């Protein structure tokens, strides 16, 4: 029988809220995304913080993210946005939310009906993990075609 101490279970979640050499905390990433967005988008972003994935199902995760993001916005000089910071509840479990969102997008007319081949897929999509917002708006394929 495997026994895991309570402190070990607690510490696993703490990694998501601490800045270190391997990356920034989730609340700091939220604050960074909101404050670096165009000014007209900030209010809407602050009011619609959607947390997805298995980690978002940790007890108290949503409340803590909301609280720390609001504190970060206030400390960054955006007290009006701090008051708006809100993590809405959703009818779907957090670990299924990304799949549900992709399914909804795929069902719209905005989504291309033609599937991609592996050759088209490789290097043809924006780099969503990049810290450069410009990389989110253009794919490598569109940059090289220009």
UniProtKB/TrEMBL annotation:
Gene3D superfamilies: 3.30.420.40, Actin, Chain A, domain 4 (3.90.640.10). InterPro entries: Actin, ATPase_NBD. It comes from the Eukaryota. SUPFAM superfamilies: Actin-like ATPase domain. It catalyses: ATP + H2O = ADP + phosphate + H(+). Pfam families: Actin (PF00022). PANTHER family: ACTIN. This is Actin-related protein 8. It comes from Rhizochromulina marina. The lineage of its organism: Eukaryota, Sar, Stramenopiles, Ochrophyta, Dictyochophyceae.
């Amino acid at each position: 029988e495997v026994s895991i101490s309570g402190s070990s279970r607690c510490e696993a979640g703490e990694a998501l809220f601490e800045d270190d050499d391997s990356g920034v905390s989730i609340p700091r990433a939220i604050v960074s995304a909101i404050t670096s967005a165009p000014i007209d988008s900030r209010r809407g972003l602050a009011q619609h913080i959607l947390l997805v994935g298995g980690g978002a199902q940790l007890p108290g995760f949503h409340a803590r993210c909301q609280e720390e993001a609001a504190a970060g916005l206030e400390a960054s000089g955006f007290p009006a946005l701090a008051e708006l910071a809100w993590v809405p509840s959703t009818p779907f479990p957090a670990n299924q939310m990304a799949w549900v969102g992709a399914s909804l997008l795929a069902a719209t007319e905005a989504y291309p009906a033609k599937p991609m081949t592996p050759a088209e897929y490789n290097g043809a999509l924006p780099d969503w993990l990049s810290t450069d917002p410009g990389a989110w708006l253009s794919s490598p394929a569109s940059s090289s075609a220009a």
